[in-house]
């Protein structure tokens, strides 16, 4: 009996050990995409092509056929992408010629009136718009859009009036599911798709939900492409809302589409995005628009940042969204100084609606419900179903018809990937038999922020503050009487000074950058709330919000600048956009932050709101070459191998007095470390790009300093005699502020330096200043 028990125990133990061993083997065999950075010059001579070298390296780390070579990179970075296990990745990194092996990360994708709001078009003969003033719509500038693809049948992509495709174009129009070469034209001059990383990191493409081709099943890419460079389409609207002529910022520019993000969630694998960027530059784009967000990490951990540097080296302007994780601080994406980082703001357009409670309190909101006729609907009983978190948010299937039938239902809208959209909430209320819906933002979306949604059901969007007051009203009547409400849905679109704009959107990610605290980000804000643009499928145009919408506005405006100033570097174009930005709204008040409804600071809006007209003739620019960025990274003590990811060769950092604050950036971010209040000094060089006619061009400096800080500029006057003359100035920051305690946390102060043209022009060249006093440990 004892022997039998012992034998059973040994069998059980053996089974357990085998299972553990099998589990460990399976764990070790898990493969996912990695990006392998290589030193190109170290290729052994017996390999004819680098691809042969890479294949040999793969065979050395494993004999498995699963180690598929996904992509090779030759333009913006050197190396390849492949499926590896963690152990194989470690082995690969130790091989000669390998700089780094980095897991390929997954990220997500982050109009009719905006041209007039931005001064590109105008109905006034006394104040012509930029398009008529310069007779340009970005002719023959090629805008590359890396996103979810394109819906080519949209009228926004018609090529009427466009000349032949620029002869320098080297791209192609790839065929695939429901897409062929005939879908390209003189507007969409190229389209490619990249999926290998996504399929190996997530799952096989579901061709019932997605097109295995450049065709857009998500809608995001179509929206961003038409915002940047869509053609003019008269009579565009969403169910009659926001009607007018829809067109992109650069309506005569050409579009090159690179699909690297996939439905249903618009997720993008880094290896696919890097391959898309490689092809875009090789194809010949002038502008790259990337509405994709990720964590704010140092450049050597971010493949898009490395590829963007390579694009900048080739003279291509790269713009990207700041991210939609505001209003919390240090939530930015795309913070590298060679990328133009764009936050989101509102425009002066509204779709007014109102709610009248039983106690006669009135709350003004917004709604794009086509059935609205301006008449009061109701009153109806009003309810907030607080039985569960799901019912509070009116998630699919969460509402009990017995509780909501023939009632107006209040639903919470959260910043949460698991939350449903407002139209989906409205569908749930309709399914449960409700009479109408109120959707109220959570506090992080802004105390006063309202978003317009398209509803097929009577519904209104209200701010967080309004939602809280309505909940208080419902609670106050629960024991005495029934809470009621009536809706007034106007069905109107209101444009003009009746709506204060721009206002920084609550969702727009905020600085400071944790990876680069000496560089102020975001760079600027642009329209990104309730933007009407083209969409995929049966819906021609939709309203959408996000820094994904703000980014292509700047991309298109950069195309306009490139058309007027074809020799300007990406840094010069960025400088023109930043130093010409404005910081007052349409009511001549300081631009406000929708979270506090107080004046926005540079961590929310960067240099200010983009101003295309002023950016065309900025007077002075802060120009930079790729070496300036290398010097900047050397000053931050990055290693030789990390910097080689950018330079694509091993270099030694120069022994110089260059400090991080000396990067020739159009804004200033000065950090006082704990216990060190000694004066900080920054240097800047400006280039005169304003016309020099008769006589000289003279600029004079002025400074705004926060309390307790002295800021001095030397010299205070510049005289330029020729176009492209340069001048250098020094800024000294002296602080009387004590080091904050740990409980106080880091403290900030804000100011600005402005150069005003007092002779030979009228330009104002403004640079914001952020000062940070780091708390003691």
TrEMBL record:
SUPFAM superfamilies documented for this protein: Subtilisin-like
Residue intervals of the Subtilisin-like protease fibronectin type-III domain: 662-770
Cellular component terms (Gene Ontology): extracellular region
UniProt superkingdom: Eukaryota
CDD domains membership: PA_subtilisin_like, Peptidases_S8_3
Domain Peptidase S8/S53: 138-585
Residues annotated as the enzyme's active site: 147, 220, 548
Chain ranges of the Inhibitor I9 domain: 34-105
Residue span, PA domain: 381-470
GO BP: proteolysis
Main localisation: secreted
Compartments where found: Secreted
Signal peptide: 1-25
GO molecular function, one term: serine-type endopeptidase activity
Family membership noted in the UniProt record: Belongs to the peptidase S8 family.
Protein known as: Uncharacterized protein
Organism for this UniProt entry: Cryptomeria japonica (Japanese cedar)
Lineage, top ranks: Eukaryota, Viridiplantae, Streptophyta, Embryophyta, Tracheophyta
